[in-house]
Amino acid sequence: MKLEMSLLQKQQNHKFETKIRLNTMKKLFLTVALLLLVVGAYAQKKVLKEADKAFKKGELDAAIQLATQATQDPETGQTADPYTLLGGIYLQKFISGGKESFEDAEKSFEWYTKAMEVGDDKVDETIMEEAMLSPADPNKVLGGEALGALEIFLIDESNKALEVEDYEKSYKFLELATRIRSDVSKDFFVAYAADNAGNAEVALEFYKKVVASEEEYENKNYAYNYVIQNQLDNEQYDEALKNIKEAQAAFPEDNLYQQWEVDVLIKSNKMDEAIEGLKSLINAGGAEKNIYYMLAYLQWNNDEFAAALENAKKAIEMDPNYGDAIYVAGSAIYNQGAELMTQANAETDDDAKYKQLKEQALQKFKDAMPYFEKAIEIDPNDVYSLRPLSTIYDQLEMDAKRDAILDRLDKLEGGDN
After folding, report:
1. Among 105, 163, 329, 388, which is most buried by a count of CB atoms within 10 Å?
2. CB within 8 Å of 60: residues ≥ 6 apart
3. Is 238 part of any domain?
4. 84, 90 contact by CB (below 8 A)
5. Angle 210-214-219 from CA coordinates, rounded to 5°
């Protein structure tokens, strides 16, 4: 019994000792793992410190290599520190290179932006702190030393480039500055420089930003004009009309937008609205001759011959040699005569009515004649006036004049000038 107890005791002691050894091994493995982790983290922090030292010594390429290594570590790569450092290194490269390298400036922006993605509000505030150029040293700033500094350098270089008409550099540098902090003035000059550099796509993009801005801005009408003209050129009439109405509300003293609105309405076949728009321009007072002419022209095309004649005459009063208005006045009367002649020819059973209508028609032709004669006096090759004039001469039995006009038309339309 004692022997059995002794063996059992030995077995239990052996199990206990084994358990102790296993626990000891586990602790040993855990200690080694923790030690490796600490050594790894320490090593990466040391890499980051070495990167910072290299940066301070001006060894920028070495600093970039070390800081980039730190971004790839699972621990240090989750902090803002290596990204902020890289932003600062590339900013220094940009400055040291005479602030000519757009690539260095853009890399600085990208690394600082990454730092803000992984950092907290304090990091954001530090990186975005605004700066101003130092009066004592154009390569130094007062205030923020990160994106705020990059922003002010980019604006300064863009302005210098604009002064010497280096539009390509100007818009690229300023466009990067807008990615840091956008405002309507920056957007406008990006668009202006891009347009002058021949980059219409960028110009349109940034002029649209100016138009969409709720800020009051003195050059906003210029942006509207660019956007509207682009939309007209591309036959985007609905979009153009929307911007024209917005511009009218913003700049009510500028008659250009009302005239533009009429032009768009005509091109989009909204004649009634166009006519009303022109009437509004005239009612506002101070309308120029072309407004009266345009209204007369639309009314003539709309078969409103009496109204067309009235407004064409007003344009002619303002300019007696206004050929287009003279043509519309003559055409309005001529069309009235043509309608009367059509009605007369329809009166097959009433000779008196036929005679009356024909006389009225001939009188209209006589009234229209001097307008067309004046039109070809101004422009002898105006076939649009020569054609109805030949018909008038024919109806009035002025055969010699008719034949002379027909000969002239044959030569003009046959290419024998």
Report:
1. 329
2. 54, 89, 92, 93, 96
3. no
4. no
5. 40
Crossing angle between the packed helical segments 81-96 and 60-71, to the nearest 10 degrees: 160
Structural domain including 414 reads 305-417
Query: Is 50 within the bounds of a domain?
Result: yes
CATH of the domain at 105: 1.25.40
DSSP secondary structure string for all residues of 50-72: HHHHHHHTT-HHHHHHHHHHHHT
- Predicted confidence at residue 17, as pLDDT, reads 54
**Could you report the average pLDDT of every consecutive run of 10 residues in the chain (417 residues)?**
45 51 49 39 74 92 93 89 96 96 97 96 96 92 95 97 97 97 96 97 97 92 95 92 90 81 83 86 87 91 93 96 95 95 86 92 95 95 93 95 93 70
347: part of which helix (H) or strand (E)?
none
Residues 6+ apart with CB under 8 A from 231: 237, 239, 240, 243
pLDDT computed for residue 280 by the predictor: 86
141 three-class SS? strand
Residue 409, beta-bridge partner list: none
Q: Which of 221, 266, 274 is nearest to 248 (CA)?
A: 221
Given a contact cutoff of 8 angstroms between Cβ atoms, the answer to whether 71 and 48 are in contact is: no
Where do runs of H (alpha helix) occur along 57-120?
Answer: 60-71, 81-96, 102-118
Rounded Cα distance between 52 and 66, Å, is 9
The Cα 223–Cα 417 span in angstroms is 46
Residue 376 near residue 389, CB atoms below 8 Å: yes
Tokens read off for 113: 């932006």
Q: Which of 139, 159, 179 is the last residue of a domain?
A: 159
* The pair of three-digit structure tokens given for residue 181, joined into one six-digit string: 């902090």
> Contact at 8 Å (CB) between 327 and 384?
yes
Query: Which of 140, 159, 178 delimits the end of a domain?
Result: 159
CATH number at residue 342: 1.25.40.10
Domain assignment present for 153: yes
Q: Rounded to an integer, what distance in angstroms lies between the CA atom of residue 193 and that of residue 177? A: 14
Query: Residue 77: its pLDDT value, please?
Result: 87
* DSSP category for residue 143: E
315 in a structural domain? yes
Query: Is residue 129 classed exposed, middle or buried when 0-12, 13-18 and 19+ CB atoms within 10 A define those classes?
Result: middle
Maximum distance among all Cα pairs of the chain, rounded to whole angstroms: 158
Q: Which residues pair with 18 in a beta bridge?
A: none
Are 63 and 44 in contact by the 8 Å Cβ rule? The answer is no
